[in-house]
């Protein structure tokens, strides 16, 4: 079965890691959100690409989900001693990724080519594709603090400001990266990973021609919300602030125009009937991935579910 996964952030990276344990490399493409990207110290930082790649390469920080394992913080502490901004924690090894990516970008290399090169260096065999080579940057429209760049909202302000909307700056002019649309057309099934629907998946879906292309395919999504809460991150808080009660049902409704299958956590059985009224085939699985084996198990069960749909 040929699968193309849409992912961003830590939840997405975990399921991608599970899928990579189940599928041969030529049968798995991953399209990654790049709207979390931002410039910091003049460096181009692509958090979701790095979170997925570090996870696939087995070099990610298990506790945080982002950044590298066994990090040192010499540069960050020296920046702090100089009175520079240290709110966005950059480990020494992680800084090497941002320096080399920025060096290559400044020489004119595109983000997809750099990502392919890094994957080769990190021993990643599956096809990891940034959603676009063009700059797209999410700004969060808040109820009381105006517009805040995503990373400042997420890291500097710890997701505290109340949201009222999201702008994906640059999305109108951004083209899907080479191979993105093709990886959708060639897939037997598209899997929307349990990432934040508002800021990790919506930028990908909002790309030119993306939704239109998806509508011709079998698409399933896994809920990032369990018992009305997100396992990590601000997804549930965002639903609430957008006037929507956070639930697996709310996530299915969010993707309703493109999905034909949906996976809820086994404790959210009570939401299945309503979702299936929207002609979305729904199943309940244990979607909590606490280790590599859980990731593989969930991916296997999701692929069995996909098999029933295609
Ligand atoms: N997330 C944080 O909450 N605090 C940080 O200091 C932080 C640093 C960081 C450095 C590199 C990187 O690739 C990701 C980092 N993240 C950090 C996560 C980042 O904010 C992501 O955008 C979120 O994981 C949402 O996808």
Please tell me about this protein's structure.
This protein has two domains: 3-137 and 171-309, CofD-like domains (Rossmann fold), CATH 3.40.50.10680; 138-166, no CATH class. The chain has helices spanning 9-22, 47-57, 74-81, 92-106, 111-121, 150-156, 180-185, 197-205, 210-214, 235-241, 248-254, 272-276, 292-309; strands at 3-7, 28-32, 38-40, 43-45, 127-130, 137-142, 147-149, 163-169, 189-192, 219-222, 225-226, 229-230, 261-265, 281-285. The chain contains 13 helices and 14 strands. The strands form four sheets. The chain has a seven-stranded parallel beta sheet, with helices on both faces. The protein has a three-stranded antiparallel beta sheet with strand order 7-6-8. The longest helix is centred in the C-terminal third of the chain and has 18 residues, at 292-309. It has 310 residues and is an alpha/beta fold. 40% of the residues lie in helices and 19% in strands. The model has no long low-confidence stretch (mean pLDDT 97). The chain is globular and about 60 Å long. It starts with a strand and ends with a helix. Ligand FO1 is lined by residues 8-10, 36, 47-48, 50-51, 66-67, 88-90, 94, 151, 154-155.
Bound molecules: ligand FO1
Provide the β-strand percentage band: 15-25%
Would you identify the CATH architecture of the largest domain?
3-Layer(aba) Sandwich
CATH evolutionary superfamily of the largest domain: CofD-like domains
Question: Structural class of the helices, strands and pairings?
Answer: alpha/beta
Largest sheet: 7 strands, parallel
- Helix segment tally: 13
Gyration radius, in Å: 19 Å
- CATH class descriptor of the largest domain: Alpha Beta
Measured as a percent range, the helix fraction is 25-40%
Number of spatially distinct domains? 2
Q: What is the string of SSEs from the N terminus onward?
A: EHEEEHHHHEEEHEHEHHEEEHHEHEH
Q: How are the strands of the biggest sheet laid out side by side?
A: 5-2-1-9-10-13-14
In whole angstroms, the N-to-C terminal distance is 10 Å
Average pLDDT taken over every residue: 97
Unreliable runs: none
Q: Tell how many strands the DSSP assignment holds.
A: 14
